[in-house]
Structures are given as C-alpha cells and as structure tokens.
Write a structure and sequence with these properties.
Keywords: Membrane, Transmembrane, Transmembrane helix. Belongs to the tetraspanin (TM4SF) family. By secondary structure, the protein is mainly alpha-helical. The protein has helices at 2-33, 44-65, 69-96, 121-127, 129-141, 159-163, 169-174, 203-206, 219-265, 272-278; strands spanning 103-104, 111-112, 151-152, 155-156, 183-187, 190-193. The strands form 3 sheets. A two-stranded antiparallel sheet has the order 1-2. Strands 3-4 form a two-stranded antiparallel ribbon. A two-stranded antiparallel sheet has the order 5-6. The chain is elongated. The protein starts with a helix and ends in a 7-residue tail after the last helix.
C-alpha cells in the first residue's frame, strides 16, 4: 500500500508541475491582451484551469502523504472534470481560430489581412462596435505603430527595406494602408496616394496619416487583430495539447494505483490469487 501511495504522491507532484505551463500560457495571453491582442477575457479560462490543476494536485499529494482515501478520491474526481475542461478549451480555441490567415503580396515579405477571410464567433466578437471601440483604443494606446519606425542616421528606411520587413498581423493591418490601395510609401506610418486603387477596398478611404487614426478604423486592422489572436491561441494550444496528453497518462496511473489501494484495504486478492480464492482446489495433501 505504501508503494501505491508513493506512486500517487509522485504523480500528483508531476501534475502540479504540469499546471505551471498552463498557468504560464494564460498569463502570457493576459500580457498579450494588454498590449497587442487587446481581447482581455480569453485568458481567464486557461488561468482558472491552471490554478485548478494546482489545487487539485495539492489535494492529491496530501491524500497520498496522509493515506487519506477521501482526498485521493477527490483528486481523481476533480481532475476528471479539469481534464474535460482543458479538452473543451483546446477544441474551442481551434474552432474559433480555424479560418482566416494573411495573404501573400507580390514583392512584399509581410502579409496583408482581409476581414472577409475570417468567420465565426471570434470575428463577430471583434467586429462588434462595442468591443471594437475598446479594442481599437487598446491597439492605438499600445504604441504598436510607433514601434515599427526605423531611422538610419535620422533618415527613414527606404521603401524596399520596409517592403521586405516581416510585420506582425496588427502592424500590417493597422499601421499601413492595404497594398491594393496603391499608396506611396513616405515612411512606415505615412503614405500618400500614388496610383489608382486596384480594387474597391473601403479601407482605402479610411486610411489617414494622422498618427491617432492611421488604419485603426479599417477592416484590415480588425483582421490583423484576428490574425494576432489566432497566432497567440495556436501557440498556447500546442503546449496545452502536450500537457493534456501527459495529464491523461498520469491520471490513468493514479487511478490504477488508487484501485490497488482499495483492493488491499478490502483484502481482495489480485490476478491468479483471486481466481484461486473463487475456485478453491478440492485436493488436499
């Protein structure tokens, strides 16, 4: 029985450690929500799941150390629902970020972002006027567009240098006009009409060189935020999937050890001994 308790305690200790990357992912999403992604409610489910795993693991460790079967049972019961919640979060994260990505542009390294490439619940949430007023202000106040400026001895970089920069989705969608508008580059956040508009893109009329406006009202900016959210969620989801697989393995090990403890406490034989007890031999020496 002691070896089973030790196994459960060890499994719970490693489960506690596994809660750290989940909680860290939630905190990282929170930092992104306050700077670039600007959608602040998405990180809370992950933070709650991470804290729950920590608390449940501590209960399992205490149950193993003090040989308290109730705490061990509570650990198994609660961890089942925590794992289910993590699975649900991963499925939700992939479902709402399934569609949409940046488009390649000829002679450019950065991508352009278009709102109609995205769909679903996340798009509806970001484009809702009530939410977008807050998100747009957050993007502007984050200073993301100021940070893309580069000077070479006090002179802005050349158009060719800028065209071959790798911009983030928000930088590409919010800090410059869409490429198909035909604007001419002056510097990273100042562009002037320099040709005919290639397509009937409404964002072409919304671009403004006023540094407080730029393309924050553009659909491309909303698409850039969606693109940034997709990248953030996918990064965190990869970590969550790995942690989930390990959690399930640990859960199965802990469950098997707990059942072994119950057999010992109930004086139930295991394996062949159980068959021998059920069908005793009629031969005696």
């Amino acid at each position: 029985m002691r070896s089973s308790n030790n196994l459960i305690g060890l499994v719970n200790f490693f489960t506690f450690l596994l809660s750290i990357p989940i909680l860290g992912g939630g905190i990282w999403l929170s930092s992104r929500a306050n700077s670039t992604d600007c959608l602040r409610f998405l990180q809370w489910p992950l933070i709650i799941i991470g804290i729950s795993i920590m608390v449940v693991s501590l209960a399992g460790i205490a149950g193993a150390c003090y040989q308290n079967k109730f705490l061990m049972w509570l650990y198994l019961f609660a961890m089942f629902f925590v794992i289910a919640a993590l699975i649900g979060f991963i499925i939700f994260a992939y479902a709402v970020t399934d569609k949409g990505s940046g488009r390649f542009v000829m002679n450019r390294r950065y991508l352009d972002y278009y709102l109609h490439d995205y769909s679903g619940w996340l798009k509806d949430r970001v484009t809702d006027n009530g939410y977008w007023n807050e998100i747009g202000s957050c993007v502007r106040d984050s200073g993301v567009c100021k940070k893309i400026r580069r000077d070479l001895n006090g002179v802005p970089e050349t158009p060719q240098m800028f065209y071959f920069r790798k911009l983030s989705p928000v930088e590409s969608g919010c800090c410059k006009p869409p490429t198909d508008c035909g604007y001419t580059y002056v510097n990273e956040t100042v562009w002037i009409p320099g040709g005919e508009m290639v397509g009937p893109n409404p964002d072409c009329m919304l671009w403004n060189n006023d540094q407080r406006l730029l393309c924050y009202r553009c659909s491309s900016c909303k698409a850039g935020v969606l693109g940034s959210l997709k990248k953030s969620w996918r990064k965190v989801s990869v970590i969550n999937i790995v942690v989930l697989i390990i959690l399930v393995i640990f859960y199965v090990i802990a469950y098997a050890a707990y059942r072994n403890i119950k057999r010992i406490d109930n004086d139930e034989p295991v394996g062949e001994a159980r068959m021998t007890k059920s069908h005793p031999s009629h031969f005696q020496i």
